[in-house]
């Protein structure tokens, strides 16, 4: 069970407005290294309604590095050759693509899978598969909409699904769930 979870928070609706990122590396089914950074968005503005969701303000991110300053030196090496997992991956992978394009960075050959789809396939009886609801259902206490806490919770959902499906690795887990690995 080797993978890296990723979660972004944004300053506004535009995808390149990432204002924080959290990553957790899972090796042999155990949470290991973590990476978290605030990010100065290209336009230094955070919608007040977004601040109410994630708690981040302009003062929090005004001195933070821009995404391009941490991508090749910190984030990409942290991910390495492991597959990424994200809850509602179209959102997080869309942000990743958008910030890479915004800063003119090469889009790497990363593989990812969506834990929202995984949860829907593993626990179809649940009324909601939102990360916060899954956390409540499985007794995972965390600070929702904190990128690092969301990434940790996402990884715990992968491990719970693997346990339920008796899967020993990501390939088996995804195959048993009818989910394909996607490419960035």
Compile the SSE list and pairings.
Blueprint: E1 3-10, E2 18-27, E3 30-38, H1 48-54, H2 58-61, H3 67-79, E4 84-86, H4 89-102, E5 111-114, H5 115-122, H6 131-137, H7 147-165, H8 170-177, E6 182-183
Parallel strand pairs: 1-4, 4-5
Antiparallel strand pairs: 1-2, 2-3, 5-6
Helix pairs in contact: 5-7
What does this structure look like?
With 184 residues, the protein is α/β, with parallel strands linked by helices. It has a single domain, classed as Ribonuclease H-like superfamily/Ribonuclease H (Nucleotidyltransferase, domain 5, 2-Layer Sandwich). It contains eight helices and six strands. It has a six-stranded mixed beta sheet with strand order 3-2-1-4-5-6, with helices on both faces. A hairpin with a 2-residue loop joins strand 2 and strand 3. The chain is globular, with a radius of gyration of 16 Å. The two termini are 21 Å apart. 37% of the residues are buried. The mean pLDDT is 97.
């Amino acid at each position: 069970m080797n993978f890296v979870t990723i979660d972004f928070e944004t300053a506004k609706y535009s995808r390149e407005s990432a204002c924080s990122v959290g990553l957790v590396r899972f090796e042999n089914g155990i949470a290991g290294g973590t990476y978290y950074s605030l990010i100065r968005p290209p336009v230094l503005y955070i919608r007040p309604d977004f601040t109410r969701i994630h708690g981040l303000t302009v003062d929090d991110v005004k001195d933070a590095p821009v995404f391009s300053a941490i991508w090749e030196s910190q984030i990409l090496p942290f991910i390495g050759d492991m597959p990424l997992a994200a809850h509602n991956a179209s959102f997080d992978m869309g942000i990743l693509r958008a910030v890479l394009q915004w800063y003119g960075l090469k889009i790497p050959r990363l593989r990812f899978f969506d834990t929202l789809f995984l949860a829907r396939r593993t626990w179809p009886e649940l009324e909601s598969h939102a990360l916060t609801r899954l956390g409540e259902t499985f007794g995972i206490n965390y600070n929702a909409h904190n990128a690092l806490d969301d990434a940790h919770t996402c990884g715990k959902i992968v491990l719970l699904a693997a346990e339920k499906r008796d899967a020993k690795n990501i390939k088996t887990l995804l195959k048993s769930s009818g989910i394909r690995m996607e490419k960035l």
